[in-house]
Amino acid sequence: MEDCIFCKIAKGEIPSSKVYEDEDILAFKDINPVTPVHILVIPKKHIESLNNVEPEDEKLLGKIILTIKNIAKEQEISEKGYRVVNNCGEDGGQEVKHLHFHILGGKKLGTKIV
Ligand code: 5GP
Ligand code: ZN
Asked: What is the pTM of this model?
């Protein structure tokens, strides 16, 4: 989608520090990391938010979850653990309107989500 920063990153029009890529998914380092490991996993297809996921996206979403698992292993945070976050919409604090999952790890996180 035009004017979507993550679509531009997915197309390589804006550079990113890529961690994983295939035909459907891209994972890259967050530009403003809040934990030692902070990676964003996105579908290359523009989906605005979790609210806009359709039944046809079922396989894609399953693939994203498996990709998150594999990246966590590669980043050596699997054993100690990590957090996966999706911010959805206004109250969820979503800033970039292209579906993305944050992988947060490399330090002990608080037990409270909010
Ligand atoms: P949100 O608040 O929408 O869940 O998260 C958006 C995330 O995207 C933020 O953590 C922010 O640092 C990250 N971000 C925004 N613009 C860019 C960018 O151009 N490159 C990268 N690598 N991350 C970005
Ligand atoms: Zn997009």
From this structure: 0.98
